[in-house]
Specification:
By secondary structure, the protein is α/β, with parallel strands linked by helices. It folds into two domains: about 170 residues, Aspartate Aminotransferase, domain 1, CATH 3.90.1150.10; about 280 residues, 3-Layer(aba) Sandwich (Aspartate Aminotransferase, domain 2), CATH 3.40.640. About 40% of the residues lie in helices and about 15% in strands. The chain is built from 15 helices and 17 strands. The chain has a seven-stranded mixed sheet, sandwiched between helices. A four-stranded mixed sheet has the order 1-2-3-15. The protein starts with a helix and ends with a helix. The structure holds pyridoxal-5'-phosphate. The site of pyridoxal-5'-phosphate (PLP) has 15 residues, from α6.
Amino acid sequence: MSGTRDLDRRYVFHPFSMAQTHEQGGAQMMARSAEGCWITDDDGRRYLDAMAGLWCVNVGYGRERIADALADQARQLSYFHGFSSMATEPAAILAQRVIDKAPDGFSKVFFGASGSDANDTQAKLVWYYNNVRGKPEKKKIIARDRGYHGVSVMTGGLTGLPGLHAGFDLPLPMIRHVSAPHNIWTRHAGEDDAAFSARLAQELEDLILAEGPETVGAFIAEPVMGAGGVIVPPEGYFPAIRQVLDRYDVLLIADEVICGFGRLGHWFGSPATGMTPDLISVAKGITSGYAPLSGVLVGDKVWQVISGAGAAKYGVFGHGYTYTAHPVMAAAALANLDIVEEEGLVARAAEMGAYLNTALARAFDDLPIVAETRGKGLMAAVEFARPTAEGWQRFDAAQTVGPRIVRAALEDGVIVRALPNGDAVSFSPPFTVTPEEIDLAVSTVRKAAGAVCDALRA
Ligand code: PLP
């Protein structure tokens, strides 16, 4: 074990891996440098990063242009703030570029530093909006099982993964969840997209009515769910959801932390999935992970209320972070967007996404424990389950099927990711990924899955 691995094991708190690996053996991999889609560890071993870090390094690693933008901006103005009466130039330019790319009806951006803080801000916007409108009871926020919205006190509860609630008394009392549109686990046999969408919209309506529409403020959803297993909504799902929300005066928040800035082969994921949100959260792809930056895009409907005369009684919208409008982060985002635009990477994400999804369908077709391969743009997953006469059944969590496949792939030099408490393995490479790199990632995971499948049979 290298010296830095030992330091990491002794001193760095790795919450998610503490029980499983960290206290025992230390990190599975210690990254030292990276270029394109490849990471080199402290032993000089190279790994193909088929996850773009955590769904974020869209332009690939090692971009001199972003490194230069960071350094130049740090020399010129290393820090200043921008949520009160102060401002920074890079953040102003970035806000305009973000709004230009956003769906119609958005005119303001609030900057933070993480996806979690963006979704926290959304909750405060919803509450403030309803307070100003004289509807202070409208505070509940409905999210979806398996949705991932962050880990803060508010967003850890919005996240619909029970493993992230355990031990923290989450969710907070004003949070509710409905089913995700999951083809294997929530779609009924023989149900087509229209019937599936209608039933899930009905489930949402039933919940709103049971809670009392006067208590429900917003519904939050990712256009395509990421960490919950790359769940692509069926045709007609978001329009059906929107009709219900409109009926009960409930806002729609699109969590585009993964989908925003090209991953689905479109600048934003909501138009690409039929979603018409009132509020949008972005992070990750806005800087390709070169600097921590998030954005909350405020739709005109909400903006008019929170900036209108009715808000005067609260003085100001009392919210903002030390790092809001951070000039260095904004400079990284501007250089990142230049690269995405100049190299046509949104179209490339669509093209390579089609290649990846076809390759997955072909490679996993013959493996009996594969319930589904699915994806949209450069987000894809393989769902592993046990085939039975009654249909698919989940493996026991103790069998750790997904994590075993991911670990075996890592040992063969490919980084993919398992759903935190399930058996889907996800792929989300940089937009610059080549067909050869996709083939390598797919064949490596196929080999790992084949070995796990054989071990399960033995
Ligand atoms: N929303 C989505 C859709 C995410 O995927 C994530 C992180 O993966 C978050 C929010 C939280 O972002 P962060 O980890 O930057 O707080």
